[in-house]
Design a protein that fits this description.
Radius of gyration: 32 Å
Number of domains: 4
Oligomer: single chain
Strand content: 15-25%
Shape: elongated
Strand order of the largest sheet: 2-1-5-4-3
CATH architecture of the largest domain: 3-Layer(aba) Sandwich
Distance between the termini: 109 Å
């Protein structure tokens, strides 16, 4: 049975209200003339409140260029005839309660029988869940586990087992966590693991490095801003706190946060609310705070460079991440992990490292920790051609630094002159019949030091043994 045209007109309002996407019709003067039920649900505005208002009330951050048309006779570029085709974009709109909603917006001109543009139809699709899932997928991809991995962290040493246990315990709480450790030791991975293993794992995980931005930009990044709050603020923008609502916010390098922002952060932790830059309306958030630093905050407190009350607020659950030199038994596992990762990214058929390289790695102090080890492996994959990484493929600074580090009681601690040191090494190599490991034991130094001294004094092992 066909529905007649006059009957379709009667059903039109019901049909529009069954659409899950928000829909509004905007007149030539920019006023909203009609909205559907889904629009009311998405924005918080009732039909009576929205109709007659300017569409600018939604403060869509994609409208800046649209609202500056080339043709000055119209107020919006969508009403310019040659530019009035359907447009699609992702943007943020402002709800009635002041919060922002990510949406996919489709806008199309509505024409009369003479093809004149008499209005614009816009649909708004809520994509907040899509954005959350995108972030979750990206995080899980980075934290894909392998053998001996714990949420992307590799280690089986007692120190790391202690860290893993603290992560498990911290994950069951919503209390603030402070991660302490040297630069490059993997503090961000600990923060990831706390979130992924916790009760808020379905919520967003937002990061912010407090040392990477100047104070004014950092404040805007943390709390957001409204349009016109400062020069260049062409549209409103939510901050990291608001983006992390019902999830976790990771503030890296918290020790570098300026004192005025420390005060504002303390207020958020105490009250659960803040104001965007340039706004007076409070925004309430439910966020778990995870911080990290490589600085001694207690020393900064003594220097009046860090607030003691903020320290007590964020240091509820401290987790100390040991440097790599204190857990050298994890180095072989980390090397295997980096070989696997480098193989996947480069396609090179490199399968391992030589014993000399492993000895070098075990003797080195790794001031840059895991990040430095990863960089060394990246360098080796560039310079190596064969299946095994050799000493010549390792950054020179590592070998040079290791040459000065010897075992207790070795000749390095009782320095002789150059001639005696070279002759001692030659005598040891002859006595050991060229075996560098045995020569190292005879000299009471490590094997890498033997190798470095052979390079330093340009000792040719074959010629040396030929003259014994």
């Amino acid at each position: 049975m066909l529905i007649h045209e006059h009957e379709m007109d009667a059903f039109w309002e019901k049909i529009v209200n069954t659409i899950n996407d928000g829909l509004m019709f905007i007149g030539p003067d920019g006023t909203i003339q009609m909205v559907n039920k889904a629009f009311e649900k998405l924005t918080g505005y009732t039909s009576a409140q929205a109709v007659g208002m300017s569409c600018r009330m939604l403060q869509c951050d994609a409208c800046e260029q649209t609202l500056t048309p080339i043709d000055k006779s119209v107020w919006c570029r969508l009403f310019v005839p040659q530019e009035s085709e359907m447009q699609k974009c992702r943007c943020l709109i402002k709800r009635k309660d002041g919060s922002y909603l990510p949406v996919l917006k489709n806008a199309a001109a509505f024409r009369d029988e003479h093809q004149n543009v008499v209005g614009v139809v816009e649909t708004l699709t809520d994509i907040s869940e899509l954005e959350r899932l995108d972030k979750q997928v990206n995080m899980l991809a980075r934290q894909r586990s392998h053998d001996n991995d714990f949420f992307g962290m590799t280690g089986k040493s007692q120190q790391m087992e202690t860290v893993f246990e603290m992560i498990r315990k911290a994950s069951g709480s919503n209390a603030p966590v402070m991660i302490l450790g040297e630069s490059g030791s993997g503090k961000e991975l600990v923060a990831d693991a706390i979130h992924l293993n916790g009760t808020r794992k379905q919520g967003p995980f937002i990061r912010l490095n407090c040392a990477a931005l100047n104070p004014s930009v950092l404040e805007s990044e943390m709390f957001g801003h409204v349009k016109g709050a400062f020069t260049g603020a062409h549209s409103s923008r939510i901050g990291r706190f608001e983006a992390a609502h019902q999830g976790s916010l990771f503030l890296d390098e918290i020790g570098d946060m300026p004192m005025p922002l420390q005060t504002k952060l303390l207020r958020v932790l105490e009250s659960g609310q803040f104001e965007r830059v340039g706004d007076i309306a409070p925004v309430r958030v439910d966020v778990r705070i995870i911080t990290a630093t490589n600085k001694n905050l207690e020393t900064l407190i003594e220097k009046n460079e860090f607030r003691q009350d903020l320290f007590f607020r964020i240091n509820v659950i401290p987790i100390y991440l040991p440097p790599l030199r204190q857990r050298t038994e994890d180095i072989p596992l980390l090397v295997n992990t980096f070989i696997r990762q480098c193989h996947q990214s480069t396609g090179k058929t490199i399968t391992g490292i030589s014993r000399d390289v492993m000895d070098l790695f075990m003797a080195y102090q790794w001031p840059g920790n895991i990040r430095e080890l990863k960089n060394a492996m990246d360098y080796a994959f560039v310079t190596a051609d064969g299946p095994i990484i050799q000493l010549d493929h390792i950054p020179k600074r590592i070998g040079a630094d290791t040459a000065t580090s010897t075992q207790p009681g070795s000749v390095e601690r009782r320095p002789d002159n150059t001639t005696n040191e070279k002759q001692q090494l030659i005598d040891a190599l002859i006595q050991a019949n060229g075996n560098q490991t045995r020569a190292a034991k005879l000299l009471n130094i490590n094997r890498v030091t033997v190798w470095n001294r052979m390079k330093k004094y340009q000792i040719d092992l074959q010629k040396t043994l030929a003259y014994k």
